[in-house]
Amino acid sequence: MKLPSLFTAAAVATTMSVSLQAEEVEIKTQQLSEHIHVLFGQGGNIAAHVGKDGTYIIDDQFAKLAPKIKAALKNLNPNAPEFVINTHHHGDHTGGNEVFAQSGAHVIAHHNVHKRLQQKHGEGSQYLPKLSFGQDLTLHFNGEHARAVHFAHAHTDGDAVIFFDTANVVHMGDIYFNLGSLPFVDVDSGGSVDGILAAVEQVMTQIDDSTQVIPGHGPMSNKAGLQRYYQLLSKAKSLMVAAIDEHQDLESVLAADPLGALELEYANWLPKERVTTLFYRSLTIENHGH
């Protein structure tokens, strides 16, 4: 999982969005089941559900890629998507909201995603969800009952995991970074290390060995991959807790380099110092009250 090429691709996908031209990005489609396809481009992985009722997608990457994403979706179904479900509010997952809304899609997301997108884009913006939910919502479409389930204070305060029970597929959003490294814990958006661990643990109890797991970033995975990720995250947490107990303040913890023991590679936008700082902020009491 720590292949340089994979890591580089992941780093490029998440960090160089500003400098890379949209025409350089290729949208790749992988079919997972009769109705579900995953689209890999630049930003968060997109799931497309296609069937007799039409099309809906989970996340939509960046606005500038919308024409390419639309073209890839047209190959699956000539009609524009009717719904977009956002797994959380970050721009590499919601950037296409406005474009798809203008084509007739209704955006669905957690209440906190609506709140954060409203703060960013303003009331009445087409980036905002038309439907928002609290704990869960089920979309009955194309013969599938897709459950969007909220997990509190995980990657952010608005995360939803989408379970396709009939197809035995789950889209984790950025609760799961499948890059052989540690996730981005968005503490400033209500995220927490404990919340990510709790979410992963709960998802693992609801899937089996043949479940196909779509991560927010990185290649397709499964329950075994999710378990490895959980173990890595648990190990990182225990190393950080021990360092915080011993050194107390952030500067001393950074100097002690507790995550160094894991020998991981890090993306340019998420260096080890930043990961350590976010874990520290999440795991220390003064920042732990949400």
Automatic annotation (TrEMBL):
Keyword field: Antibiotic resistance, Hydrolase, Metal-binding, Periplasm, Signal, Zinc
EC top class, as a word: hydrolase
Cofactor(s) this protein cannot do without: Zn(2+)
InterPro entries in the cross-refs: Beta-lactamase_class-B_CS, Metallo-B-lactamas, NDM-1-like, RibonucZ/Hydroxyglut_hydro
UniProt key word Signal: yes
UniProt keyword Transit peptide present: no
Localisation per UniProt entry: Periplasm
Metallo-beta-lactamase domain boundaries: 43-217
GO terms, biological process: antibiotic catabolic process; response to antibiotic
GO cellular component: periplasmic space
Molecular function via GO: beta-lactamase activity; zinc ion binding
Superkingdom in the source lineage: Bacteria
EC number, as in UniProt: 3.5.2.6
Chief site of localization: periplasm
UniProt xrefs under PROSITE patterns: BETA_LACTAMASE_B_1
SUPFAM superfamilies with a match to the protein in the record: Metallo-hydrolase/oxidoreductase
Pfam families: Lactamase_B
Reactions mediated catalytically: a beta-lactam + H2O = a substituted beta-amino acid
Subunit and partners: Monomer.
Family: Belongs to the metallo-beta-lactamase superfamily. Class-B beta-lactamase family.
Record's protein name: beta-lactamase
The species this protein was found in: Pseudoalteromonas ruthenica
